[in-house]
Amino acid sequence: MFEFKILKKSKKSRARLGLLETSHGIVETPALVPVATQAVVKTLTSEEVLQTKSQILISNTFHLHLKPGEKIVKSAGRLHKFMNWPRPLMTDSGGFQVFSLGFGHDLNVGKILKYFPGQEKRELIDKTVQPRKVKITGDGVHFRSPLDGKELFLGPRESIKIQQLLGADIIFAFDECTSPLSTYEYIKDSLKRTHAWAEICLKTLSTNQALFGIVQGSHFKDLREESASFINSLGFPGYGIGGDLGEDKKTMSKILDWAVPFLDEQKPRHLLGIGYLEDMENIIKGGVDTFDCTVPTHYARRGIAFTSEGKLDLRKSIFTKDKKPLDKTCLCFVCTAYTRSYISHLLRANEITPLSLLTFHNIYFFNSYVEKIREKIKQGKL
Asked: How far is C-alpha 297 from the geometric centre of its chain's CA atoms?
């Protein structure tokens, strides 16, 4: 079962309120999709994640294929039962690993170039270049397992078959996530692969899972428009907007402006791998309904709390005598029960409990932030 219903459209932007309905429940959109890479939101139980106001999670096809393997997940009753998560789930296609284990690793770059400050200008990737540890062909991608070095192959058919066994409500077509340092010629060549793979994914699918096609094209306007138009023409029930998003966040907004008008507005749009607090209003105004991001969990494991006062590094000694909650406006159990002093003490004592406390708070804080954005749309303020 899959249905998307638009409840309200903004008159000021492309923002909208919607309901995304699956057999595992309804998601109010716009919505953050916390990342449960290996069928877990790191440091939290599924019961705890429910209490963070999370409506839907996304797991990683490539990593679950490596361990424990999709057949083991299927034998456990598929992903929902395996991880005891009763609400909707997404799985990515493994396409991001083409980038992260390939050019992302080789050149130490992310989806947005500016996210890696201090980086020197590097030579652009042209279509004759291959990553050192990944071989990209028209059929798919040859990897070596980061666990044991074993040779692996992942293509559109393999990705869909794995995702079908995992059993998430929403799955993604296999694509090539490109580097922001790629030339126009490389991106154009890559786009042909991604579009061919999208068609193969549709033909391979044999379940009632909602398969989203992914728009690529990097930071090139004509290629983004071409990709959005082509992916839209294939009749997917929803869309992912992926790939590298240029050199800075201004380019990211432009990319949404280029792609979104070519996508059927009655279908949901998911932005892959972006979701800093400062990004949220802009991407939602750009027409994004759901978006996944590791920021709240990644930062928590490094002792950082997101608050209405900004980011707090609880490892610093200045917090050891601070008896305030992480955020006086936050209603999560961490903020009502624990002080900055206590959490700072635990971090400085190298305990593991504060990682869980900060993860819970950060996800709750992010979800509350998105709730406020939904309210702004409802009131006609966004």
From this structure: 12
Per DSSP, the residues of 210-252 read: EEEEEE--TT-HHHHHHHHHHHHHTT-SEEEE-S---SSHHHH
pLDDT tens-digit readout, 289-307: 999 999 999 999 999 999 9
CATH class of 2-293: alpha beta
Cβ count within 10 A of residue 19: 14
Q: Look at the block and give the residue holding tokens 């500016």.
A: 114
Q: What is the 3-state secondary structure (H, E, C) of 257-313?
A: HHHHHHCCCCCCEEECCCCCHHHHHHHHHCCCCEEEECHHHHHHCCCEEEECCEEEE
Q: Can you tell me the distance from the alpha carbon of 274 to that of 270, in angstroms, rounded to the nearest whole number?
A: 10
More confident call, 176 vs 320: 320
Q: Is the pLDDT of residue 103 over 80?
A: no
323: tokens are 């008896």
Does the pTM surpass 0.85? The reply is yes
Residue 17, amino acid = L
The residue type at 87: R
* Residue positions annotated with a catalytic role: 92, 292
Instruction: Note the pLDDT tens digit of each residue in 355-374.
Output: 999 999 999 999 999 999 99
